[in-house]
């Protein structure tokens, strides 16, 4: 069994920078269950335990709690606590000049929370996060601790933001980082303990390793805890470095990996990923249930306990670790870090520049990297969690149910901003196709539920969703849809008989009918075709010039190299059309759908033939005539503003139509080819390019 002893747990609401980094690295993630439980002995000797693992039933795992008014007072205090904290933080953040010297104990006393609220809720959570004695948390910085509660959504007993872990354990993440760094020329030394560092020459540093080796560096980044940084600096630490780094305080813990169930809640229904257990002597400990956190399918419990009251049975491993605590002194020191950062070519970053979690360490590292490079960069702030209306929540349920029923091949993942991850199908097996769609607005669900596939297209256009993989995300989504559509077609199930993308609501059918009626009202009759073409091609020539090449060719190019320009591919395509048509000097060529005139000019320059092109766009006509005049080819080139059904009676040696047939419409294809046949001279050639 592969275990992460300190699993990296994160979510979209509290770890936006970590999530972004994992996406950039291509690291896959999976859901993680992180419920919390408390089992503590009160001062009066009574037991109190509860859990968030299974809704109200686990909250009332201790059945007597349902009849205890004091327990419901705790629930009331939790709601009051949220209101008080948000008001407190808003006031202090609006007045940054206020000092942040108030301790958590002073905050609790001033707001008169019940004793049971402190014993059964607030202190256990704080002691679990910072793995310290119960009463020690009361001396923490109120502003720092309460900010952590807000940022990590700890006010809620239920409905927490969904958490994730790295798929394949942390080793897969570390390997990705290593490959990325080595690909950029970085040299990585592992199992290499640093003993000390000292000034060298005119501004560099000599770094001495434990094995005696020495290396010289221009600048040094110390990505370690403050006490370790001071130890490495030794006597060369400045007064300011000693003062600021020395203010960070740490808790040192003994940690065991074991299988001893006695260090879990006595009531199995209260077992959670994160379990606080305390006693009358104020000795507390925390046990993590790795099976639940890391989705380990094993009857044997793998448990990690911090500071147990006795050595567990069935110990697999023991180690020691330290963790920063959010003391008032540490908060002040954090605000003064700029006084020592980079001042003599030494930079400091570590998880102590926050709350000891990976997101804070990553942010500290990014700030230092930007400082070393002399650049400014913005860190991502915690996004707001999507709060759907009741109609959007209902639509979300319908969409999830539909996708769960419909997708069995490939893997479609919906990542909600600041919220949950919904996964449908799986990407294992022969058809390993995966698409991750980020949902930015709950209107996405309403649009899909009410307008089906057309609603999905509208939601994408409106920016309510986007793809994590900008290059292939949309393609992979279509591949997933096609594979499942084909699978359902070959199935005899009821679902397949109803059609793969069956509208979820009547409104979806109505929306489809709306688009169908709009489409049928725009059938390409002679009169309507002119309107249809004008609505697209007469937007403005300046608009089309924004994304076309210099030749203004609006059809598929032919590329031979990945680094080739669009202009090169278009000129190759024009030459191929001329070659395919075998145009000669004495030929008269008809171009149905002449566009902005690039084919006309290139053809006449190469062959000296006579050319007639037709278009229904006044903007195209104006532009093409201007370009022909610039080239001095008016004697050879004629443009007509007319429909293919209204071409003046004449015969042409060659007829070319490049990606115009897409505008004809299925019901008019016979008429189109009849017109082409009637205007083609005997033994003439017709060259047609179609966009597939």
UniProtKB/TrEMBL annotation:
CDD domains: AdoMet_MTases (cd02440). This is Amine oxidase domain-containing protein. It comes from Aegilops tauschii subsp. strangulata. Gene3D superfamilies: Vaccinia Virus protein VP39. One of its GO terms (molecular function) is methyltransferase activity. Coiled coil: none annotated. It comes from the Eukaryota.
């Amino acid at each position: 069994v592969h275990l992460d002893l300190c699993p990296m747990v994160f979510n979209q609401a509290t770890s936006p920078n970590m999530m972004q980094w994992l996406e950039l690295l291509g690291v896959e993630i999976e859901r993680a269950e992180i419920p919390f439980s408390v089992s503590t002995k009160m001062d009066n000797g009574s037991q109190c335990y509860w859990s968030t693992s299974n809704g109200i039933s686990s909250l009332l795992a201790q059945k007597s709690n349902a009849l205890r008014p004091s327990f419901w007072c705790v629930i009331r205090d939790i709601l009051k606590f949220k209101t008080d904290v948000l008001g407190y933080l808003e006031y202090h953040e609006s007045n940054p000049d206020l000092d942040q010297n108030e301790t958590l104990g002073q905050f609790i006393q001033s707001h008169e929370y019940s004793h049971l609220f402190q014993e059964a809720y607030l202190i256990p959570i704080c002691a679990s996060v910072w793995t310290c004695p119960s009463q020690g948390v009361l001396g923490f910085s109120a502003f720092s601790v309460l900010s952590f509660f807000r940022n990590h959504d700890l006010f809620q007993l239920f409905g927490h933001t969904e958490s994730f872990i790295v798929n394949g354990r942390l080793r897969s993440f570390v390997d990705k980082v290593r490959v990325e760094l080595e690909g950029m020329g970085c040299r990585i030394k592992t199992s290499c303990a640093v003993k000390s560092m000292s000034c060298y020459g005119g501004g560099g540093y000599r770094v001495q390793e434990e094995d005696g080796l020495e290396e010289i560096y221009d600048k040094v980044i110390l990505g370690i805890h403050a006490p370790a940084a001071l130890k490495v600096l030794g006597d060369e630490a400045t007064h300011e470095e000693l003062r600021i780094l020395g203010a960070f305080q740490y808790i040192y813990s003994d940690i065991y990996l074991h299988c001893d169930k006695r260090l879990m809640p006595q009531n199995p229904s209260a077992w959670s990923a994160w379990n606080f257990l305390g006693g009358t002597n104020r000795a507390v400990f925390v046990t993590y249930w790795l099976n639940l956190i890391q989705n380990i399918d094993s009857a044997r419990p793998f448990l990690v306990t911090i500071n147990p009251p006795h050595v567990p049975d069935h110990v697999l491993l023991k180690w020691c670790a330290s963790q920063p605590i959010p003391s008032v002194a540490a908060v002040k020191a954090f605000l003064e870090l700029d006084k020592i950062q980079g001042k003599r070519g030494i930079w400091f970053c570590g998880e102590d520049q926050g709350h000891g979690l990976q997101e804070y360490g990553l942010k500290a590292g990014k700030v230092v990297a930007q400082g070393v490079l002399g650049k400014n960069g913005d860190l991502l702030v915690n996004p707001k969690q999507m709060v759907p209306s009741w109609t959007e929540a209902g639509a979300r349920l319908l969409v999830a149910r539909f996708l769960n029923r419909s997708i069995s091949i490939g893997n479609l993942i919906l990542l909600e901003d600041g919220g949950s991850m919904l996964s449908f199908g799986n990407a294992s097996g022969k058809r390993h196709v995966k698409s991750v769609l980020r949902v930015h607005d709950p209107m996405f669900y309403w649009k899909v539920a009410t307008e089906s596939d057309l609603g999905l297209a509208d939601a994408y256009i409106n920016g309510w969703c986007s793809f994590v993989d900008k290059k292939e995300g949309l393609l992979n989504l279509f591949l997933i849809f096609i594979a499942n559509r084909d699978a359902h077609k070959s199935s005899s199930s009821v679902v397949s008989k109803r059609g793969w993308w069956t509208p979820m609501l009547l409104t979806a059918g109505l929306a489809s009918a709306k688009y169908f009626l709009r489409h049928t009202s725009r059938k390409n009759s002679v009169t309507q075709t002119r309107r249809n073409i004008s609505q697209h091609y007469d937007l403005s020539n300046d608009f089309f010039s924004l994304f076309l090449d210099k030749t203004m060719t609006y059809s598929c190019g032919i590329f031979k190299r990945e680094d080739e320009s669009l202009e090169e591919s278009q000129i190759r395509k024009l030459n191929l059309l001329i070659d395919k048509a075998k145009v000669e000097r004495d030929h008269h060529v008809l171009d149905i759908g002449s566009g902005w005139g690039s084919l006309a000019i290139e053809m006449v320059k190469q062959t000296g033939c006579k050319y007639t092109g037709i278009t229904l766009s006044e903007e195209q006509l104006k532009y093409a005539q201007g370009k022909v005049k610039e080239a001095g080819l008016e004697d050879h080139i004629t443009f007509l503003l007319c429909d293919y059904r209204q071409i003046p009676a004449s015969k042409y040696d060659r007829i070319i139509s490049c990606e115009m047939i897409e505008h004809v419409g299925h019901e008019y294809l016979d008429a189109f080819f009849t017109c082409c046949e009637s205007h083609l001279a005997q033994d003439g050639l017709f060259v047609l390019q179609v966009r597939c």
